[in-house]
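<context>
A single protein, sequence plus fold
<sample>
Here is the protein in question:
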Amino acid sequence: MTALTKKRGAAESGDAGIGLGLAAFIANGEDLGPIVRHAFESGKPEALLQSLRNLVKKEEVEIEDLCRVHYEEFILAVDELRAVLVDADELKGTLSGENLRLQEVASSLLLKLDELLELYSVNKNVGDALATLKICVQVTGLCHICNKDIAEAKFHAALKSLELIEKDFLQNIPLKLLKKVVQKQIPVIKLYIEKKVCNEFNEWLVYIRRTAKEIGKVLISQASLDRQKNDRIRSQQREAEECSRIGFDEHAYALDVEYIGEEETVEFDLTPVYRAHYIHMCLGLGEKFREYYYNNRVMQLNLDMQISLTQPFLESHQHFLAQVAGFFVIEDRILRTADGLLCESQVETMWETAISKVASILEDNFSRMDAANHLLLVKDYVTLLGATMKKYGYQTTSLFEILDKNRDKYHELLLSDCRKKIDGIFAKDSYEQMVIKTENEYSMNVSAFQLEHIGIVPDFPYVTPFSSSVPDACRLVRSFIEDSVNYLSYEAIMDVYDVVKRYLDKLLIEVLNDDLLNLIHGSCLDVAQAVQIAGNIAILEQSCDMFLWHAAQLCGVPRQLLDKPHSGLTARAVLKASQNAAYNGLITLANSKIDEFMLLLTSINWTAEETPEHANDYMNEVLIYLHTLVSIAQNVLPREALYKIVCGAFSHISDSIMTVFLSDRVKRFNANAVAGIDIDLQKLEEFADDKFHSTGLSELRKETSFKDYLVEIRQLTNLLLSNQPENFMNPVIREKNFASLDHKKVSIICDKFRDAPESLFGSLSSRSTGQSARKKSLDVLKRRLKDFS
């Protein structure tokens, strides 16, 4: 086989491969694009075209074979088509005839249809006209209603009409002129309504600022009534507790319908605010009106915070505080009822600003007040303001902080007032026992302060153991307690009783006690006045329990707490000390008066030739004075004090006589003089025993009686009159009979003692032997005392 033949064979075999691939792709309905692209890319498009031609020829052969197989069937189908064509021609002729007949019949109907369509057009135009007229009538009707509502100031209804026009009719008004007029007038009407409600609101602002003061006064008055009611209830509770402590009282728990009632309701007109707010919300200007309302109310508040400088604050404080109360009660009502006109933060901001300014004004005016009652009046109204505002949920702590800060100043002013009044009370007192003539006077001056516990009303006239300054001072102290409790009765102070007790101690110690000490040490008093002052102090010291109980009762403290240890007043111990000082002063005063009488002792005859038969004159004066002193003190002073004072007097008399014996004024004395002193002592001792029993002091079971305070001078007298004075040096006898005598004093006095001089016939006297023995014994005593020294 030649090379050309081989090459042709290879080409034919390659073409045959392409032809088979095309046939397979075509049979499968696949895309021939990749084969075509491959043929052209490989540079053999002719082979592809040749393969396609071969496929076409192959298919044509297959078609021819198929036609030969189905030839007869095609002939029959053509015959059937020709028969159908004949029938179609007949049908066409029939239809043409029927069409001609239908056109002849429908020509008359077409004329009637044109007429009907024209009628439909007219009907549509009339309907459109009626719809247009209906809309215009509705719009004009709404406009008429709107104008009528505006004329009658029914702005809400007018805005509803405008809203209805805008939403339902404005875009559908067919008449352009009417639509234009309506569109133009709607903003004008809204602006007119806005101005009208703003004018009403501005008038309301003027009205409500004027009304706020009256609102505040009514509410503060209501708070005052509530406080009085609470005070009455607490008073009844205290009475019930006291009755239950003593015994059950069937009326203690009775229901008092007098105190049951509804609180007074404060009414004020907020309609203009509600309407203005709602109208502005309807106009879409709600935020603008809220800001307008808030700014105007803030300006009014700033005006309210400006107080008059020409009018005293004491006269203007009620109006000022009532204005503040009324303002914020109104704001509270607005906050709760005006549907978002105010928010809580705005009200809190206004309240904080106002309360800060009020606190500043109060602090400034408190600092310039110089009278306690003025400060109390303002404080009372401030607490009522606080109670009123707290009911509405406002914080009032800063108000009470101002009151707490000025608490000490108030009490200092109150103490200053009390000091002046106490000075006046003591200055006008004559320090004589009060004479009560009527039961009412007794109730006012004695029973009211529990100054006596006799349990029954005495017969009148009745002489009290105290002078007029005692009930006056008690009345002043009780008034101080009430004023103190009144000032401290606000919620910021929980321990009111402890605070009142502290200031009460201060009053009793720094005012009452100091004035009493000034009376004791700085006044020229006689003994009767000094006795009365000492008795007054004793009663005032006992009254401390009554003062404390009164304070506890006002503060609502149970009585059981007062019985605890260390629950009493410090002032009681201080008054007790002052009472002792008064007793000591009285003793000093009594002793100084006794000294005046004892001066007469030096003028007696210390070397009398005969034994006296009666007491010396000085002793008579002393006994008269002591009788007067005991009589006065017995009716006024406690028995312990009476015992102390009288014992001091007897002790002083004993010391005075002893001092005279020791003094240089008595150079010598004899037994007759000593016998006279013995008579004096006997009378004094009888008086001492009598008074010790008649005053009831013997019932105190004291170990020492009045007479025992004369023991030193009595033992000296007994020694000098003794037949054997040398027994003094006997320890046993001295301890038994002369224990109170001092060796040195006895030695000095014995040196001055001279026995009675002998008369011309002294040697024949029966007493000469006894006198000589006593003289010898006395000489022995003198020597032994010198040796002892």
The radius of gyration is 65 Å.
